[in-house]
Structure formats: C-alpha cells, structure tokens
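FORM 12-B: Structure-to-Sequence Request
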C-alpha cells in the first residue's frame, strides 16, 4: 500500500469512456482547483474522486487502484476565484477558513473572491487591520487556506467512497515554476517517471516573510511534509511496482504557471486545462497516433497534436526545456539527495540522474 498526496479525477470523454487520473504535487500548484474544472471543449465531463490523500494498491489484475480515506478538500485560497470554479456553492457551508480577511458582518474575503460589500460594511485583512481605504494592502496571508467537506462539491463521483478504489490510467505530478519546466511532459518509463517526481522543486510563496517572494522548494512528489520514514525507502517502494505482470499507469508532469517576458501567465488555465487531459488520454489509449518531441526530460507534445482551437499561446515557450535551467536543477537536487539520503539513494535514481545529464550534454 502506497500513500500519495493527490486529487483524484474521473474524466468522461465525448465517446463516453471513463478515465481515472491521479494528480499529485506540492501545495499551490493548481491541483485542488482542477476539482472545479469546467471544460471548454464540448463533450467532456469531469468529476472528483477525492482530495489530499490517496491510498494506492496493486489489484489482482496488476493495475494500480486508488481510494481516498478523507472526507474533505484543503485548498490554498489565494488566487481562487469562486465565480470561475463553481466555488460559490462549494464554500457556502461546512468550510473553515484560515488567514483570510473578513467583513464587519463576519464573512470571509480574499483578493480574488470578487466580494461586493454592503454600504457601510468594513473589510479587514488577515491581521485584523481595516483595508477599505488602502488598495495596496493584501487582504489574505500568502498561505491562506480553506478546508471543506466533500459533500459541498457538486461534482463528486459516484465511487468516491469506494473502499476498493478505482484503477488509475495516469498519474500527473504538478509543480509551479515561472520558467524552465514545460507545460506538459511524459516520462519515458516508470523508473524515469519516479526519478522525475523525486526531483520536483516548486516556486512557493515565502510565508515567513509574508510577501510574494518566490523561492524553489524541494518537495518530491508533493510528499515532503508527510513522509514518516526514509525518503530513500519510499522511492524504493515506488520503483518496486515496476514488475512484468503489473499494468502501471503512465506518468506525466505539468506546470500551469509559467510566466512570459511580460510576467503574465503563458497558459490560460481554468477550463482550458481539459486540453492537457485530452492529450494525456490520447497518449494513454493511442500512444503512436500523436507526434511528440523527444527531449532530455521526456516526451512533450508537438503543437499540432494539442487541441489549441480558439487559443493564442506561445507554444515554443510553453514546451521549452532550457539546458542551463535543467543542468542547474540536477546540481541542486544532487546536493539535496547527498545531504538527506547519502548511500540510501536507490541505484535506479542514480542511473536516471546520469542518463538525464548525458542527454543534455549531447543535446
């Protein structure tokens, strides 16, 4: 039995085929907000299996089955827009807010909630200071959050409470990097995917300074805060699943938060994230149909293989894998592994380190 911090989704495609996908990664990477995805491509339906924790086991058929032991969601509220993400109903009851602002009538508020105050109503920030006459004041703390029961979510899947779990078609690991990490990539193999997931670093808000200063945080698989035993042994458990009779899900990696030269996001996100899932599902069901680019970090989609209808995006920037960025990443992560794992680093991870460095050196 493996444990993973996740969001579980059930996607029904236009042909009415259902696909179960797990999304894992550090906090603040857009994972939980995908529970409220409103597809911009007709014919798709998205439902939720669970949030925060997944228990994963190998079924008798060799597939990985995931179930959730928790009855709730935990979201970082900063940037969450209820009007775009079904949140008005979701947050109307059974919700506990932390470090958000509030009104004189006791209602929670934060910068992106588009709150309309009644005449004479006073708004306070998370420290209790009035911010009605100070447009520069940030209402919520950078790590403001909300915990909500699953019953609030209007799109829970019928099997979300199943103890048997659902068979996973793919596991997606997400991160939040302003540059360097492409929008979407696919691991070459299971071992390569475990390696990629074990090296995740993310740009996170510095909660100690309380300002929007971005620092890369090492958070492998989004599990840094939850591991109760050796990280090396945890990786060995994941690697041990790669057996001839097991039918393992494909591993993918996404980064929804790349910035362009104007400091604006390159990818629109929200309902357009269904375009990423559409490509992933095609790679699962018909991997030879779509054209891909073989990069040193994995496969990335060619522009013509992505459904970009009605979008205007800078595709080359979205899928770029700059050599200098990744060589620096490998140096930084090797130092971290040396300090926390030493000789307990699995040999398979060492092999993948060397392989990626060779591919970039010859690129």
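FORM 12-B RESPONSE
SEQUENCE OUT:
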């Amino acid at each position: 039995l493996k444990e993973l911090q996740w969001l579980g989704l059930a996607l029904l495609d236009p042909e009415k085929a259902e696909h179960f996908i797990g999304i894992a990664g550090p906090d603040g990477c857009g994972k939980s907000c995908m529970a409220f995805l409103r597809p911009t491509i007709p014919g798709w339906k998205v439902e939720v299996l669970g949030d925060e924790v997944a228990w994963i086991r190998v079924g008798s058929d060799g597939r990985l089955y995931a179930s959730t032991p928790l009855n709730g969601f935990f979201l970082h509220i900063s940037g969450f827009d209820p009007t775009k993400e079904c949140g008005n109903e979701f947050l109307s009851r059974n919700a506990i807010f932390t470090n958000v602002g509030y009104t004189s009538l006791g209602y929670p508020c934060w910068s992106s909630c588009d709150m309309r105050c009644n005449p004479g109503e006073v708004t306070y920030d998370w420290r209790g200071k009035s911010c009605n006459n100070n447009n520069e004041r940030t209402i919520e703390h950078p790590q403001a959050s909300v915990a909500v029961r699953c019953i609030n979510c209007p799109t829970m899947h019928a099997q979300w409470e199943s103890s048997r779990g659902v068979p996973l078609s793919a596991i997606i690991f997400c991160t939040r990097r302003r540059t360097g990490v492409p929008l979407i990539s696919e691991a070459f193999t299971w071992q390569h995917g475990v390696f990629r997931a074990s090296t995740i670093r993310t740009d996170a808000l510095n909660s100690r300074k309380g300002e929007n200063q971005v620092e890369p945080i090492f958070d492998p698989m989004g599990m840094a805060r939850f591991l109760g035993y050796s990280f090396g042994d945890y990786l060995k458990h994941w690697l041990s699943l790669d057996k001839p009779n097991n039918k393992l899900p494909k591993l993918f990696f996404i980064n929804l938060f790349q910035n362009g030269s104007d400091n604006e996001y390159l990818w629109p996100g929200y309902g357009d994230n269904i375009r990423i899932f559409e490509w992933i599902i095609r790679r699962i069901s018909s991997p030879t149909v779509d054209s891909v680019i073989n990069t040193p970090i994995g496969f990335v989609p060619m522009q013509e293989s992505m459904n970009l209808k009605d979008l205007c995006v800078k595709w080359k920037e979205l899928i770029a894998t700059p050599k200098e960025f990744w060589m620096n990443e490998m140096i930084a992560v090797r130092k971290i592994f040396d300090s926390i794992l030493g000789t307990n680093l699995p040999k398979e991870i060492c092999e993948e380190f060397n392989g990626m460095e060779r591919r970039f050196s010859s690129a």
